[in-house]
Design a protein that fits this description.
CATH architecture: 3-Layer(aba) Sandwich
Distance between the termini: 32 Å
Radius of gyration: 18 Å
Oligomer: single chain
CATH class: Alpha Beta
Number of domains: 1
Number of strands: 12
Shape: globular
Order of helices and strands: HHEHEEHEHEEEEEEHEEHH
Strand order of the largest sheet: 2-1-3-4-12-11-10-7
CATH topology: Rossmann fold
CATH superfamily: Class I glutamine amidotransferase (GATase) domain
Structural class: alpha/beta
Largest sheet: 8 strands, mixed
């Protein structure tokens, strides 16, 4: 998947330049201090940032409590999210003061439940190592622009023992869902968004850096270069022996993160995105 991510990220950025030039310009202006990544023992969101060629600042979980954060930053907390009391207090202050938080998998229980109780929770039914078809709920949502085109069926990898997301507060917006996930593990949400104070929180089930996918249909078993051509992007050498489904999955994942980073950058200083 590392080569799929490099190609998928390039496709995402080229399409963003055509379809959302203001977002593309915002990505070009991103500096390392704009995105703070808390390293995880399992997930590696920073690898997707690197595939997108976006700079970031990395800190260890035990360092977060003493870090200086600004409301205009994006804070990424990788699974598992063992931050300690000071780190959790820092996260709560950061978001309620206007910051954007992006978390994955076990951070649902270790960060979101204690920092923002009563909003989302783990349903207690861990997943198997699995792959499920996902459905974008709102194609007009700016965070979902270009994540999945009509006719696409992106797949989402579930790490073994991923935590399904139970929505407790009606104010939570389910951005991406999965009927297969709900049928197998009791909850449909794949990606959710909610407000807390002046800030916002994005959370996704499983690890954001997807380590595998499945090729269920003939369209997904086509060549990656055919997928690139359909999207109006020139193929690259790294696609030589990749399948369309692999690059499609990586491109969807890359574009969602690129959208989040771009919208955060565009909102700096109170500018409306």
């Amino acid at each position: 998947m590392s080569r799929a991510y490099r190609s998928g990220a390039r496709i995402s950025r080229e399409r963003m330049a055509r379809e959302a030039p203001l977002d593309a310009a915002a990505l070009e202006a991103v500096q390392a201090s704009d995105v703070v990544v808390v390293r995880g023992a399992y997930d590696r969101v920073e690898l997707v940032l690197e595939a997108l060629e976006l700079p970031y600042t990395a800190v260890e979980p035990h360092q977060l409590g003493g870090a200086r954060l600004r409301p205009e930053q994006l804070l990424v907390v990788n699974c598992p999210g063992h931050l300690g009391p000071e780190g959790l207090a820092q996260v709560r202050r950061f978001v309620e003061g206007g910051g954007s938080l992006f978390t994955t998998d076990w951070a649902l229980r270790h960060v979101l439940e204690p920092a923002f109780p009563g909003i989302v929770a783990y349903n207690g039914r861990p997943t198997a190592d699995d792959v499920v078809r996902i459905e974008v709920r709102d194609h007009d949502n700016p965070f979902l622009r270009g994540v999945a085109d009509p006719g696409e069926d992106p797949l989402w990898w579930l790490e073994g023992s991923s935590y399904p997301i139970r929505v407790l507060d009606p104010g939570v917006r389910v951005l991406i869902a999965s009927t297969e996930l709900e049928r197998r593990y009791g909850e449909a949400p794949v990606a959710v968004l909610f407000r807390a104070g002046e800030g916002e929180v994005f959370h996704l089930i499983s690890h954001y850096y997807l380590q595998r996918t499945e090729l269920r249909e003939a369209r997904q078993r086509a060549s990656a270069s055919a997928y690139a051509a359909e999207r109006g992007v020139e193929a690259d050498e790294g696609m030589a022996d990749l399948f369309a489904g692999e690059v499609e999955t990586a491109a969807s994942s890359s574009r969602l993160l690129a959208n989040v980073v771009a919208r955060r950058k565009r909102s700096e200083g109170g500018r409306d995105a």
